[in-house]
Amino acid sequence: MWVIEELVPDGLWERIAPLLPPPKPRRYRYPGRRPVEDRAALAGIVFVLKTGINWNQLPTPLVGCSGVTCWRRLRDWTEAGVWPALHELLLDQLRAHGDLDLDRCAVDGSHVRALKGGPKSGPRRSIAGVRAPSTT
């Protein structure tokens, strides 16, 4: 399918394929449907992320699988740690080719883990004036 090859070029697929977890083994009895290929699911994920549509709006004939299947695969790959490994791999390759320019970069703190919830401040002070006397 030309859409899959356009959304996930061969070079990108060669980098991602080794990072993906192996598929779950199928049952011998009542095996169900064959699982969708990982490359088709990745193409669906890329399509949803590029267009901004909802998962259930993904046109199934376009990539060969439903949006729910792509969402599940994204969830499973996220739990398996595929995306940080891919990010590290691509950064290493950019460094090796000298294409990584750190003079022009943005730092995002959403990827940095705050150990033990980060620093704790003292107890909050009341900003109210003098406390009213009790009437009971």
Automatic annotation (TrEMBL):
Residues 9-87 form the Insertion element IS402-like domain. Residues 114-136 are annotated as: Disordered. InterPro entries: IS402-like_dom, Transposase_6_like. It comes from the Bacteria. PANTHER family: BLL5188 PROTEIN, TIS1421-TRANSPOSASE PROTEIN A. This is Transposase. It comes from Blastococcus mobilis.
